[in-house]
Design brief:
With 186 residues, the chain is of the alpha+beta class. The chain has 2 domains: 3-95; 99-171, hypothetical protein PF0899 fold (2-Layer Sandwich). The protein starts with a helix and ends with a helix. The radius of gyration is 26 Å and the shape is elongated. The protein has a 4-stranded mixed beta sheet with strand order 2-1-3-4. The protein has helices at 3-46, 52-94, 99-108, 124-134, 164-171, 173-185; strands at 114-119, 137-140, 150-154, 159-163.
């Protein structure tokens, strides 16, 4: 499965989830507004005319607070959806049919001509095959790293974390979040 297919599948799932979140947001907003409106109407009945101006300010404040609470809830849900989407991308790459080819391409793009490759746990054989395909002078370490996919490349002076968790979760996170926000919530 190609990376574009994986990303399209993730995008499709994310768009579906975004629609659910939008509907949930509207429902929460209506519920909160209804509760606050009811509360404000009760307060208005209890206050006399001399406090009417203060009641209007309180009503406006309560409505603003309800809207802010609904926006915060939506933002929290959006963040959770983006985080879930990035986690699914890591899982999809880690279980991709062309896993070896992905690793080989990553190795080919590395500036290090020689070094030690620490494979992901359970992906040792695929990593050895990827080293062969890359044409680099890398040695695969017998022990593995507690990562879901990718590899760690090290030399005497430097260690480069090419795990999918780091590449997607840290190195590409900013641009991916921007694109996901555009795709999911525009």
């Amino acid at each position: 499965m190609a990376l574009t297919d994986i990303l399209e599948k993730i995008q499709s799932e994310a768009e579906s989830k975004a629609e659910e979140l939008k509907a949930e947001y509207e429902q929460k907003k209506k519920q909160l507004n209804a509760e606050h409106l009811s509360h404000l109407q009760q307060m208005a009945k209890e206050n006399d005319k001399s406090i009417e101006t203060d009641g209007e300010k309180t009503k406006l404040k309560a409505q603003n607070e309800a809207e802010m609470e609904a926006k915060n809830a939506l933002l929290k849900d959006k963040r959770a959806l983006i985080e879930d989407t990035l986690e699914k991308a890591v899982d999809a790459l880690s279980s991709a049919e062309r896993y070896e080819d992905l690793l080989a391409e990553m190795m080919k793009k590395s500036d290090m001509e020689s070094g030690i490759v620490i494979p992901a746990k359970g992906k040792e054989a695929a990593t050895k095959n990827a080293v062969s395909k890359s044409g680099k002078n890398y040695t695969v370490e017998e022990s593995s790293a507690a990562i879901r996919g990718g590899f760690i490349l090290k030399s005497d002076r430097i260690e480069i974390d090419n795990s999918f968790e780091t590449v997607i979760g840290k190195q590409l996170r900013g641009p991916l979040e921007i694109e996901l926000n555009k795709l999911l919530f525009a």
